Amino acid sequence: MAIAVVPDPRTGPTWWDMYELAIACAVFGVPHPDLADPWYELRLCGQNAGPEAAGGFFGIRTTHGLDGLVGADTVIVPSVPEACVERDEPVPEPLVDALRAAAASGSRMVSLCAGAFALAAAGLLDGRRATAHWQHTGELAARHPEVIVDDSVLYTDEDRILTSAGATAALDLCLHLVRRDLGARVAGQVARRLVVPVHRSGGQAQFIEHAVPEADDDGIGPVLQWAAAHLDRPLTVAGLARRAGISPRTFHRRLQAATGTTPLRWLLTQRLALAQSLLETTELPVELVGERCGLGSAANLRHHFARTLGVSPSDYRRAFAPPAPAAKGR
User: Fold this and answer.
1) Assigned fold of 2-193
2) Which residues form a coiled coil (predicted)?
3) For residue 125, what pLDDT band results from cuts at 50, 70 and 90?
């Protein structure tokens, strides 16, 4: 899989620009042959041929021009010139044209932080949910009213178009991409090697839907932890609300405030996460996996897998289950 990363196409990227660029390079540019071989092929594509200074101390030199974006499986835009955000200067037209061409060729398009302004300028975020650093989301929404801007999340995933909030949220999205491409086990190992959690919640926080809130003052955390441990049961919003000692409406409101999603969506995500884990780590038949995660029949499991992950449970297992241990010689 080829990953093309487009740094700030003008001179003078900020430290934050370099930080988000470095995150993409750290995740996709460092091979892990023990986890997946071949790994990603990373190339830096830029508008300028010369080095670009960051903070006056060091620079970068891209290995490809903007024509290197076309044909890449994924294109990542980690930043745009600061003036495009702060002073409403237009995103450089060659970059906009190159992004449109890459999207038209079938590339998955990704922005980190202010890179969303480039995707928006190319019209790729029209009618889609997107995010950026919370300091910039107001400007993004004002300048591009056709974009559904969400300033409460770490990242958004609209299938072929993904965006992240600023700074370290770029790492959350990059690990999410690894999980989508190579599975939870590989993403978890990469996260451990980077000494970060594979999922996290936080301030500008998309609740990372596989996580469960800790114990809290309003009773939501313990109830969700209990639910996550009993996913094989026929859980309902009304039943969970009774366990929390509150009305279903209050439960819905508190869960959405704590996690950023609805109770039914949260339950489905937990069940799919458990199904993924069982498919990756056990040899249980698909029918039993469906029962263990509370999705019931194998047909229902296949339906939700195809809708959410784009693959069947069997294909997922073949792709992401650990290899069988080699037979020892006598």
Assistant:
1) Rossmann fold (3.40.50)
2) none
3) very high
The domain limits of the chain are: 2-193, 211-330
Q: Beta strand 2-5 with 129-130: parallel, antiparallel or unpaired?
A: unpaired
pLDDT tens per residue, range 92-117: 999 999 999 999 999 999 999 999 99
The more confidently predicted of residues 269 and 121 is 121
- In whole angstroms, what is the distance from residue 91 CA to residue 103 CA? 17
The dihedrals phi and psi of 100, each to the nearest 5 degrees, come to -60, -40
Does residue 328 or residue 72 have the better pLDDT? 72
The tokens describing 11, both together, are: 């001179």
- Please name which of 151, 14, 175, 153 lies closest in space to residue 80, comparing C-alpha atoms: 14
CA distances from 14 to 19, 52, 82, 196, 278 (A): 9, 10, 8, 24, 43
Distance of alpha carbon 150 from alpha carbon 135, whole angstroms: 12
Look at residue 38 in the predicted model and tell me its pLDDT: 92
What is the per-residue pLDDT for 8? 58
In CATH, the architecture of 211-330 is: Orthogonal Bundle (1.10)
Tell me the pLDDT of the chain averaged across its residues.
83
Taking residues 71-75, report their average pLDDT.
95
What is the rounded distance in angstroms from the CA atom of residue 301 to the CA atom of residue 312?
9
Show Cβ contacts of residue 181 under 8 Å, excluding neighbours closer than 6 positions.
1
Rounded to 10 degrees, the C-alpha dihedral 96/97/98/99 comes to 50
